[in-house]
Specification:
mainly alpha
Amino acid sequence: MSYARQMLDTYPRPPAVDAGLLAAAIEAASDCAQACTADTDADLGEQNLAEMVTCIRLCLNCADICTATARVLSRPAEFDPSATRLLLGACAAICQSCGNECERHAHMPHCRICAEACRRCDRACRDLLDAWG
């Protein structure tokens, strides 16, 4: 069991959303932020750096939004439902954009892995949004 789920299970009141989906979204956002940060660093070492500029920028934005999303979702005691839904939507959107760009460079293993992390986070955010209603 993940730390996110273990922490959610310690709350005096259950979260307003499914704890399994919430934990999955927290984990996916944290993993995606890490993958995007590492991919940015690897991209900076590529020979044709000019070709990687869009990927780098999207990865930086994705890492920031995923980090914010993971942090907000990790505090479920008093969610602001409107803001949290918007944040989940923004996270899914940037993960989709970043994943698409990284997929263009999937011949580089670091971009392929990052694209996978982005796809997983996109799905996890959308799954949580769908369950929320």
